Amino acid sequence: MSKITIKQIAELAGVSVSAVSFVLNNKKGVSDDTRRRVLKIIDDLNYTPNVNSRRLTLHRSFNIIVSIEAKTSPLDNFFYVALLNSIVKTGGTLGYNIVLSPESTCFENSHLADALSQSNADGIIFLRDISSDMQAYIDKAEVPFVIIDTQKSNPPYPCVKMDYQLSAYTATMHLISKGHKKIAFIGVGSIADFYLNSFNGYKAALSEANIQIPLEWIRSEAEAGDENSAKECIKSILRCKELPTAIYCTGDILAIGIMSYLQDCGLRIPEDFSICSVDDIILSRYYHPALTTINVDKDLMGRLAVEMLDRLIRHEETDTLITIKSDDLIERSSVKTLL
After folding, report:
1. Distance CA 136, CA 131 (A)
2. How far is 165 from 194, CA to CA, in rounded Å?
3. Parts of the chain with a pLDDT under 50
4. d(CA 310, CA 95)
5. Which of 225, 244, 264, 298 has the most CB atoms around it within 10 Å of its CB?
């Protein structure tokens, strides 16, 4: 049967149009008996909800906007692609269209601003922290949003985050367990909370093992945010009178840039320097030597963020802060065991 409407299903089931809408969108508010009766009619009629009808009936667009940075490191894309795959998969399962919105220098002219002004977004996912001004604008538009991978210790908005202090601690302890006592640290100073969380984990591991290292082995230049600028950090360490045997990096992007530079200098990994980091982007397993790293469960992050946002859209109760423990060490070939 073609062109069956929600109204016709409601008449056949002897219920209201709203009750049918609740069943179609798996919402509470109808009895189990009513739900079974409506679902049977839907199944018998082979009914597929019309998107436009659902939008009009429920006053929703069924669009989730994912705001992404317009300019990122080429390697950074590996991290975001894994996140986006999970977001698209989970969003589709819940009946949403996922719309990408590149970040704009002028928010008023951005795709996101247009979507909000036209009520064409049920919710927003940001793959980064946002400013207080941006949060105020979105709050005024009364559109729910979720932040993925916030670096703030006490985020003021709904988010899914990783425990990067635990990641740094786990990675550093792995290097120590392999006999390394001279361990350098390279992080991203421009992201203060991320740097602090990572450094605290690194410092806790060294303190537990009663290890002290020279301050010049701690590199936190603000520009160390991609594989190219990371090279400047390792250049500084190579100029030190005493050299480390291992380097902990706060991300695979930094680690791969450092490994590349060291190899260009004729140095060997892990024979001359052992490298350990965090992220487990897909390139880390194919780089030579394969990179030992802490797995950041990007699939889980994306899924939990979409599910949280869906509950916010539906005005259902939900945890608004989910911290994923990240101590899953992926041991590969970039770390040498010292005798």
Report:
1. 9
2. 9
3. 1, 56
4. 10
5. 298
Tokens at residue 212, please? 């002290």
pLDDT in tens, 191-222: 788 889 999 999 999 999 999 999 999 997 65
Q: Say which residues have a Cβ less than 8 Å from residue 174's Cβ, sequence separation at least 6.
A: 276, 292, 329, 331, 335
Q: At what angle do helices 32-45 and 6-13 cross, to 10 degrees?
A: 120
The count of other CB atoms within 10 Å of the CB of residue 13 is 19
Report the 10 Å Cβ neighbour count for 96: 22
Give the model confidence (pLDDT) of 65-87 as tens digits.
998 876 655 555 788 888 999 99
The string of DSSP letters for 108-128 reads GGSHHHHHHHTT--SEEEESS
Cα four-point dihedral sign 87, 88, 94, 99? positive
DSSP result, 40-96: HHHHHHT----HHHHHHHHT---EEEEEE-SS--TTHHHHHHHHHHHHHHHHHHTT-
**What would you report as the CA-atom Rg of the chain, rounded to the nearest whole angstrom?**
25
| Torsion sign over Cα 139, 142, 148, 153 | positive
CA distances from 170 to 111, 274, 295 (A): 40, 15, 11
Six token digits for residue 49: 């909800």
Structure tokens at 41: 């009619």
Burial 21-35 (b: 16+ CB within 10 A, else e): bbbbbeeeebeeebb
Amino acid identity, residue 195?
Answer: Y
Written as six digits, the tokens of 240 are 């030190």
Q: Order of strands, edge to edge, in the sheet holding 183-186? A: 218-219, 183-186, 246-249, 274-279, 292-295, 329-330
Tokens of 166: 């635990």
Q: Which alpha helices (DSSP H) does the chain contain, by range?
A: 6-13, 17-24, 32-45, 51-58, 76-93, 111-117, 132-141, 164-177, 192-208, 230-238, 252-264, 283-286, 298-313
Contacts of 122 (CB under 8 A, 6+ apart): 60, 61, 62, 63, 64, 96, 143, 144, 313
